[in-house]
Specification:
The complex is a heterodimer of chains A (392) and B (332).
Chain A: H1 32-39, H2 42-52, H3 54-71, H4 73-76, E1 97-100, E2 103-117, E3 122-134, E4 136-146, E5 150-158, H5 177-213, H6 215-230, H7 233-243, H8 250-263, H9 266-280, H10 284-291, H11 296-333, H12 344-349, H13 354-359, H14 367-387
Chain B: H1 2-28, H2 34-44, H3 51-60, H4 67-79, E1 85-86, E2 91-92, H5 93-97, H6 100-128, H7 133-147, H8 150-165, H9 184-221, H10 224-231, H11 236-242, H12 244-254, H13 256-274, H14 279-288, H15 292-320, H16 322-327
Antiparallel strand pairs in B: 1-2
Helix pairs in contact in B: 1-15, 6-7, 6-9, 6-13, 7-9, 8-9, 8-13, 9-12, 9-13, 12-15, 13-14, 13-15, 14-15
Classes of the chains: A alpha+beta (392), B mainly alpha (332).
């Protein structure tokens, strides 16, 4: 220790030293919520980011409602799929009212009167304002087999005991449209999921091979993808589904159609996988795994795929709509699913005639769930894609 | 440029070959050969079968040969303008098809032009007025167009056109002009009917194009040269049209390649609903009756149409964009 150069002693002002214990990291200390954020896993971050995308959340809820309704179709639908009401053929939609002659009675429908117009042989239905049929909830109606497991009669909503409840009208055999749409959701919604599962698997395997090996494998696969993409989808779908043997059972046809839809759809996913893999395989951790003697399957599946799985899921979600639309178009043309299997496309097949538009426009109503589901999948997929990279 | 064109043309050959192979496999997949089912059908209707004709057809199309030779016959036949024999119509495919192919091309072309005319201004508006109500509204409208099944829209439009404009239902012209030579009135009648399929087929492609044009233009608008231009005091309109729009235009040309398959797909279904005299309805009936040479020719034709369309768009792009022309064939 050397004394100060001028030799003066510090006498007057004492140097201030805080007595409190000193923590050198106090500036960098994290608030609890910050710490939660930094420690969160990738999926946790994605979940938080997705929640901020309001449209995606709403779409997700809509999709959830649709899938739950499809799962419990027997309970949600007021009638059974094949229940026929021969007295009410082509009945128009009945509106639900709440107030009768100034008195509140809860949800009810007026009775329907049927008359055949002898001039033009048109069925005419009129509401009888005197007959009030209150709707019943959690009630006993048509008997059904829930998923073929057990028999039950409980429905979410049913008509009054001697009344009718056709919220969306009836078709040419007097079957309730609402019930048919709900049952149809089962097929239409699963065909998208099932198809995307198949094309997802195909896309990952084929794109993975192309991206990981590169070279001629990549070249061949790239050309193949280009060729498949240059086919107009629908005519090819039509041609392939025309091949399905006529004597196949409906459920086999369903699987056949799904496979056909998936067979042309994997190209987009395969491309995404390939380009991501091409970039990622140059990373150090991949080289390290190679040096340690890991096999390609393990490297792709264990080290590379998790890095962009979220992107893949997002783009898979975005390609479900085209499958649902594809099924609808095929069934509409009569090349896809056939009755007794009921999908939205099969229902729309009945609306093929211009007379339907003019006389029974409610037969076109199955298009509403199609539009809603496709929009919801699009918005939800957009949200997922934004959330897929939470570190941005 | 010439080298690039040659390169692209050469690349097309293997593509078309593979496509023809795929089509051939598809038309071969149903069990049995066509002549057998054809004969069975004739016999079931109580008509007599001319064995000489069957033998001639069998020999002419090499149906008694192994598959790879059949493929070879079919392929070489196509080069000579012989697309096979339609068993349903009992005529060579070329005579059955007639001018349906021309009409398909016509409808597709007009649809693409329509898509451009609609998507271009809307895309620019959406990009320059990002997050405005107009942007949201137009985007939403585009989404609705994307989500509505074409065929149902066609049906409703057909009905509305009939009720409000008195357009006759179905077909591409009023019934009295069918089979008549082309005249001014016939042309007007065709135009009167054409707008429905064009609008209907256009809706789905338009939505996608608006989204992509908007995204592209937004990318360009954020670049530094735009900021520089604005700082120098360039008028807004001039700044937009002079550079960023030109950059986005390139993509506009190349986008034909991606909308063409969907336009043709849409055209097929819509044509069935509207019973247009294009390939759609005939292909559907050919597929349903397993008249596979006819169906196969249609499939081959539609795929070639797409390939040629993509080629044309690539060439146009190369003519517009020196970067592609000079790098020799590296597109997208």
């Amino acid at each position: 220790m050397t004394p100060p150069p001028n030799g003066m002693k510090t006498t007057g002002t004492e140097h201030f030293v805080s007595k409190a214990p000193f923590d050198p990291y106090s500036i960098e200390a994290l608030k609890p919520e910050q710490e939660r954020y930094y420690l969160a896993s990738q999926w946790q971050l994605m979940w938080w980011k997705l929640q901020r995308h309001r449209l995606a959340v709403i779409s997700g809820i809509v999709l959830l409602v649709f899938y739950i309704a499809a799962l419990f179709a027997e309970v949600v639908a007021p009638y059974n799929l094949q229940t026929r009401h021969t007295d009410f053929i082509y009945a128009p939609p009945q509106s639900v009212n709440w107030v009768h002659e100034g008195k509140f009675v809860g949800p009810f429908v007026y009775g329907l009167d049927y008359r055949l117009n002898m001039n033009n042989l048109k069925r005419e239905y009129t509401e009888d304002q005197q007959r009030v049929h209150k709707l019943r909830f959690f009630c006993r109606g048509d008997e059904y087999q829930f998923w073929g497991l057990f028999t039950s009669r409980v429905h979410l909503v049913c008509p009054d005991r001697d009344g009718t409840f056709y919220l969306l009208g009836t078709d040419r055999l007097g079957r309730d449209m609402l019930s048919r749409i709900i049952y149809g959701a089962r097929i239409s919604l699963t065909i998208g999921l099932l198809g995307i599962t198949i094309s997802f698997a195909l896309g990952i395997v084929i794109g993975g091979l192309a991206g990981y090996y590169g070279g001629w494998v990549d070249n061949v696969i790239q050309r193949l993808i280009e060729i498949i993409r240059s086919f107009p989808e629908l005519p090819l779908w039509m041609a392939l589904s025309a091949i399905l043997p006529v004597n196949w059972s409906p459920i086999l046809v369903f699987f056949g159609i799904t496979v056909i839809l998936a067979m042309l759809d994997w190209t987009g996913l395969a491309r995404a996988v390939r380009s991501k893999l091409l970039a990622l395989r140059e990373e150090d951790y991949c080289t390290a795994a190679q040096l340690m003697g890991a096999r390609p399957r393990r490297i792709i599946g264990r080290h590379l795929l998790p890095g962009f799985l979220s992107h893949l899921i997002a783009s898979a979600t975005l390609s479900i709509p085209s499958m649902i639309l594809g099924e609808t178009a095929l069934s509409f043309l009569g090349l896809g699913l056939r009755p007794p299997i009921t999908s939205w496309g099969v229902l729309l097949n009945e609306a093929q005639n211009i007379n339907v538009v003019a006389l029974y426009p409610w037969l076109m109503l199955p298009v509403i769930p199609v539009i809603v589901v496709i929009l919801a999948f699009n918005f939800f997929g957009d949200g997922l894609r934004d959330a897929a990279d939470p570190y941005k | 440029m010439l080298r690039y064109v040659l390169h692209r043309l050469l690349m097309m050959v293997p593509t078309l070959l593979v496509i023809s192979l795929i089509v051939f496999v598809i038309i071969q997949l149903p069990p049995g050969d066509y002549l057998e089912s054809y004969m069975a059908e004739l016999q079931s209707q109580g008509e007599s079968v001319d064995p000489e004709k069957i033998a001639f057809l069998r020999q002419h199309y090499g149906l008694d040969k192994p598959l790879h030779e059949q493929y070879f016959y079919w392929l070489t036949g196509m080069f000579q303008g012989d697309f096979g024999y339609s068993f349903e119509y009992d005529l060579p495919v070329t005579e059955v098809v007639g001018d349906r192919l021309v009409l398909t091309v016509l409808v597709s072309l007009i649809t693409i032009v329509f898509t451009w005319i609609v998507a271009f201004p809307i895309g620019i508006y959406s990009a320059t007025h990002q997050y405005s109500w107009g942007d949201y509204g137009l985007t939403f409208l585009g989404f609705i167009g994307l989500a509505t099944p074409n065929f149902l829209l066609a049906l409703v439009m057909l009905y509305l056109a009939n009720v409000y404009f008195g357009t006759s239902i179905g077909g591409l012209m009023d019934p009295e002009y069918i089979g008549q030579p082309w005249s001014w009135d016939k042309l007007m009648s065709v135009l009167e009917h054409l707008w429905i399929p064009v609008v209907v087929i256009g809706t789905s492609g338009t939505a996608g194009m608006i989204r992509r044009l908007r995204a592209n233009l937004l990318d360009e608008l954020q670049k530094q040269y735009v900021v520089t231009g604005r700082a120098k005091g360039l008028p807004r309109f001039k700044l937009l049209t002079k550079y960023p729009l030109r950059m986005a235009l390139n993509f506009f040309i190349s986008d034909i390649g991606s909308i063409l398959p969907s336009v043709i797909s849409g055209a097929e279904v819509v044509a069935v609903v509207l019973s247009l005299p294009t390939t759609g309805p005939m292909m559907l009936s050919a597929l349903q009756s397993q008249d596979m040479y006819l169906a196969g020719s249609f499939l081959m034709f539609l795929a070639s149409l797409t390939v040629v369309g993509v080629l044309l768009s690539d060439l146009a792009l190369a003519a517009l964009d020196p970067r592609i022309r000079l790098q020799g064939g590296v597109t997208r």
